[in-house]
Each structure stands twice: as structure tokens, then as C-alpha cells.
Design a protein that fits this description.
mainly beta; 6-stranded antiparallel beta sheet; single chain; about 10% helix; Alpha-Beta Plaits
């Protein structure tokens, strides 16, 4: 069951993290991922694949790990809000392995 966002946050998007199969070291890092943990969102404005690319990363000193991206086609609004300086973050709501693919579900949050 997904973890709810705090009352001070507005859920803007619920989605899967794209590209997890392309992240070296993710299988070894996965045990550190816990549902409910905060995640960071960072724009990758110079991406040659997606004009609205938004990276999803873990947070914490020495614990930053690049998990993947917000899905293409669902990321434009979030990218525009990040570009405008809005305080966005994310939260891991569910994780599960499906063969070699780590299925990560997240909520994108806007602080009120």
C-alpha cells in the first residue's frame, strides 16, 4: 500500500521511475531503498533524448544515488516547475523486482 504524502505536500504526479535497468550498481543499492523515503528531483536540461528530462535521486550525505528519470511524456509540467524554482521533491511509495527490472513507484510532491 502506498505511503501518503504529508499534509503539507501536494501530490502532483504518481508514476514509475524510468530507466532503472540502465543504472549501474542499482541491484546492489536496492536494499537501501525504503518505501516512504524522500527522493530528489533534478533537471537535466541538456539531455539529447528528452527536452523535459528530470532525474530521480536518493538524498542524504554520501547516499546520493541516481535511480532513473521521470517518464517521458509525463515530465513536462514537473520540469517547468523545477525550472521556475518551485520546491519539488519525491517520495518512494513501492519497490519490487520484476525479473531484471526494478519497479519503483514514486509520488512527486510540491511543498505547500
Amino acid at each position: 500500500m502506498p505511503t501518503s504524502a504529508p499534509a503539507t505536500s501536494l501530490v502532483l504526479l504518481e508514476c514509475l521511475v524510468a530507466g532503472t535497468t540502465h543504472r549501474p550498481g542499482l541491484r546492489e543499492f536496492e536494499p537501501k531503498l525504503k518505501p516512504g523515503q524522500p527522493l530528489a528531483l533534478t533537471r537535466e536540461a541538456d539531455s539529447s533524448y528528452d527536452d523535459w528530462a528530470v532525474k530521480v535521486l536518493t538524498t542524504g550525505p554520501g547516499e546520493e544515488f541516481w535511480l532513473g528519470y521521470l517518464p517521458e511524456g509525463r515530465n513536462e509540467t514537473v520540469a517547468r516547475l523545477l525550472d521556475a524554482g518551485y520546491p519539488l521533491s519525491a517520495r518512494l511509495t513501492h519497490k519490487a523486482w520484476e525479473d531484471e527490472w526494478l519497479h519503483l513507484e514514486i509520488e512527486v510532491l510540491l511543498e505547500r
